[in-house]
Design goal:
The protein has 142 residues and is of the alpha+beta class. The chain has one domain (2-140): Nuclear Transport Factor 2, Chain: A (Roll). It has two helices and eight strands. The strands form two sheets. It has a five-stranded antiparallel β-sheet, with helices on one face. It has a three-stranded antiparallel β-sheet with strand order 2-1-8. The longest helix is centred in the first third of the chain and has 22 residues, at 2-23. The protein starts with a helix and ends with a strand. Keywords: Signal. This is Bgt-50239. Residues 1-21 form the signal peptide.
Length: 142
């Protein structure tokens, strides 16, 4: 009886360890299955693998500012930029904008032209390697 409990716990650990290892690997191509996007009619927070949290309000402030900037900005080398890395379960072209300038890691909100939030990613640069992208998960609030 006790052996099966230990066995079950180690199986769970092995599964979680594999998921964790996959989530921190550099992502170089779109994933075959779209990542879920939050319902815009619900309240939610995003939490990244490092524990950093962002509220829907914080994300929407950046999305609204970026959307206004897109109307007047014609440069292709400034944020917001077209997003083509991870696939999200949301319609339309995706764009991304940095949440706040400063030291790494950098967090980016991903959104469409309808100002709907698709997701949030954490980007860390590694010297002489590709950047590491980690999608952050969302949690609905009651």
């Amino acid at each position: 009886m006790k052996l099966s409990t230990i066995s079950g716990a180690s199986t769970l650990f092995c599964i979680l360890a594999q998921v964790k290892a996959f989530s921190i690997a550099p992502i170089q191509a779109p994933l075959p299955v779209p990542l879920p996007s939050p319902d815009p009619n619900q309240e939610f927070n995003f939490q990244c693998p490092d524990g950093k949290r962002f509220t829907k309000f914080e994300l929407m402030q950046v999305v609204l500012g970026a959307s206004e900037y897109m109307i007047t900005n014609t440069s292709e080398d400034q944020y917001p930029l077209k997003y083509e890395y991870l696939e999200y379960d949301i319609h339309g072209e995706l764009w991304y904008h940095i949440m706040k300038e400063g030291p790494e890691p950098h967090y980016f909100v991903i959104f469409n032209l309808d100002k709907q939030i698709a997701g949030l990613i954490r980007r860390t640069s590694v010297e002489d390697e590709d950047d590491i992208l980690e999608p952050c998960g969302f949690i609905y609030l009651r």
